[in-house]
């Protein structure tokens, strides 16, 4: 009856929009964020507190302001980020003029679209749950708007209320009907080798994963990032925890402050390890990083075709990792890396900037005099670390020009990077070839689902020294200082970090949640063309081809359609009345409706009666029944027996047709 | 002025006499049973009636017939542009003998007042009557005089676009409970009109069916008619629809809601029922609502909107 939105509808639409736009806001610059928030607040204020609605000039101005802000922030209107930001901003401006039913419908419908665009950025489980809730609210908002149009505000007593809880219930019902369709489409929609449109890009803002260079103090930011880096499932027994060194970028060049891979780092591998009984076979599912690094245990012997391995046994994917990527590796722990070091490599592995860290150099030369043997010298340094006043802590001071000097002789407090860097400098001063390996150490073993969860907070840096006859050997100076860092993970090595998130039960919950995420990754995101084919094969539908598969999908949807229609019809049936006389009379009316005489909603019984009575043979009976009903329904309260008699007569009455 | 006469057989029950009165008016006003029922509904609800139509379709005949059968005293006031408030309300006259003012009641002091062509008088005169209708009392020279009960005004008016009229102000139109129109008679009725004697002669033959007390008793009985919850829901839904409809400037007031209930009760009593059915509400809604509503510029006129509301409001 009305064309303008009621207050309740406006608030429901605003809530739906807010929930749909929230994940986008997360990734937006503050100006756009503030723009959207202000628009929502203004519109809500106009509804609740009767603020003056913005005039035409302001609305037009806001539209152009939003457009300008997007261009200013992104430099373009194209691309995923800019385009979705534009969508958010324009919808926010639309809120300012959302007064009519069709405006409300448009915003609610576009909220669904807004929800879908989130998948361009991330497909994580929690986001899916959030977006499901968002769809639910948007559906409820559409229903609420429809209610505005359908009926005046006064609802008949005893009937389902038009409030938000009722709409949410109905919305949930509708979503439930959509579920079978979604499942069929998900299972049968022909999968393409590569995604149809732009690859999803995880929201990486402020989260960079491991970089391919290392300035001391950098990994610390990763320690606070509990998000998963990758998950590993092993074929067979997983190795013990202190063997779980997930090898990443290997750093050779040092300029006194920053370690880099160096120009020679990309040389291809010259000698592949042979696989024997001790080989480890495992599959890694790595979260998107937008970098190309893959991580493997020492020493990768078999790897996928689209992965390149460098001479330092670094794994590099051909493409940056923009989606959750699975890869299988076979590693051979018993292998001698580089038994013979060429003079060039020896020079590279002992090179240091001139004149840096004089005290470390002094100390190295002293040690060299005491321990002519390389291995003995290394042992002595590790003992020094272990027994001396060295501490493991994430809270430490930044280092200056002579970083190793300051750390080894003054600060003596730090974490893996500090130790790895200082140790390598010390080794090189002593003439022992040494390099830094960055990656991850350890992980959390999900015993129930048998996979290893490696978080970004498990990031680590360790050292490899070259020993005559043994090749490159892994040395972890951090382990000498803080054995628990390796045994129990970075979390346990930092006493009293005191973040509430570190409470054990929360940590446990987070691990449980990761199990769900893992299942989601495996069964939903990982449902690619190959798995789809294997599912169809199991159903005996292998020879289908894309066309056949599409036909199957359409057929299934067509089959589901009438079913859902029928269920919806059940749901849409008139709400049950609380008047027994009315309920009984509805049976009579329903029987007449099946004979083609339907009472319009706005028709009174007495207006309908002549038509109905004329259509059947026992019209007189119907007239008596109707008179009875009108008296019972609208007259003074009748006696119980009279009511029961009427109900009984209604139940037995059947229209008679010639 | 006619003396109240009584119907033979006073033993008949009030409801039977009501039916007889309706029949008597129908005998004079041909082919308008609906309009006649509405007129009686207004009477029973204690409200006033406005009959609006073109000249010559029987407005005055209906009004006079109603006045006669209702019994009690009745006056007819022909409104003209030079009619003054005092001509309606009455005047205080200086009596030289006892040196006092004596109030001479005007024609408004009657049970039934027939205000013919109300829109031909000036607004000042119109509002004198309209105020008397609302207050049911008259103040002249600081003295308040109560009007008799029942007090039933039947006003007629020509459509507003005729020359020489002063349209009733919108804000005062709702002093009238119902506004009805009669429309042209159909061919058969017109032929009957031609055959039968003059309507005025028929009116002369008409006798009062009630007296003051009889009408009062019926009005009391009407106010006792049962209004059930489903009917109240329907009634409220209709009123709410006028308040929410975008074409209307404002919806029906709570006073109109009360009037709707009262008129529906009167309408039910005309059928001899002790309870209101949705049909009662549906039939009186348009005559009750349309003259109280105004449309926004460029929007559908109120009568179309009200018709639409009736078509869209569900009944249970």
CATH class of the largest domain in chain B: Alpha Beta
Structural class of chain B: alpha/beta
Number of strands of chain A: 18
Q: How many structurally independent domains of chain A?
A: 3
Instruction: Please give the radius of gyration of chain B in angstroms.
Output: 20 Å
What's the CATH superfamily of the largest domain in chain B, by name? Answer: P-loop containing nucleotide triphosphate hydrolases
Short description:
With 658 residues, chain A is of the alpha+beta class.
Provide tags for this entry.
heterodimer; A: 658 residues; alpha+beta; 3 domains; six-stranded antiparallel beta sheet; four-stranded antiparallel beta sheet; 23 helices; 51% helix; B: 316 residues; alpha/beta; Rossmann fold; Helicase, Ruva Protein, domain 3; 2 domains; five-stranded parallel beta sheet; two-stranded antiparallel sheet; 13 helices; 46% helix; 15% strand; globular; disordered N terminus
Question: Can you describe this structure?
Answer:
Chain A starts with 6 loop residues before the first helix and ends in a 6-residue tail after the last helix. Chain A contains 23 helices and 18 strands. Chain A is of the alpha+beta class and 658 residues long. Chain B has two domains: 14-218, P-loop containing nucleotide triphosphate hydrolases (Rossmann fold), CATH 3.40.50.300; 224-312, Magnesium chelatase subunit I, C-Terminal domain (Helicase, Ruva Protein, domain 3), CATH 1.10.8. Chain B is 46% helix and 15% strand. Chain B is built from 13 helices and nine strands. In chain B, 44% of the residues are buried. Residues 1-9 of chain B have low confidence and may be disordered. The chains are: A alpha+beta (658), B alpha/beta (316). The A-B interface holds A 1-4, 151-154, 156-157, 577, 579, 582, 601-607, 630-631, 633-636 and B 226, 228-231, 233, 236-237, 240-241, 244-246, 274-279, 282, 309-316.
Fold blueprint:
The complex is a heterodimer of chains A (658) and B (316).
Chain A: H1 7-27, H2 30-48, H3 56-74, H4 80-96, H5 101-117, H6 125-150, H7 164-188, E1 214-215, H8 220-223, E2 228-235, E3 245-251, E4 253-254, E5 258-260, E6 280-286, E7 293-294, E8 300-302, E9 307-309, E10 315-317, E11 325-331, H9 343-350, H10 358-370, H11 374-387, E12 391-392, H12 403-411, E13 413-414, H13 416-429, E14 434-441, E15 444-446, E16 451-455, E17 459-467, E18 471-475, H14 477-481, H15 483-488, H16 490-493, H17 504-525, H18 529-538, H19 545-572, H20 580-594, H21 605-615, H22 619-634, H23 640-652
Chain B: H1 14-28, H2 33-44, E1 48-52, H3 59-70, E2 74-78, H4 85-89, E3 90-95, E4 100-105, E5 112-116, H5 123-135, E6 137-140, E7 143-146, E8 152-157, H6 170-173, E9 176-180, H7 187-195, H8 199-205, H9 212-223, H10 229-244, H11 254-270, H12 278-289, H13 302-312
Parallel strand pairs in B: 1-8, 1-9, 2-5, 5-8
Antiparallel strand pairs in B: 3-4, 6-7
Helix pairs in contact in B: 1-3, 2-11, 9-11, 11-12, 12-13
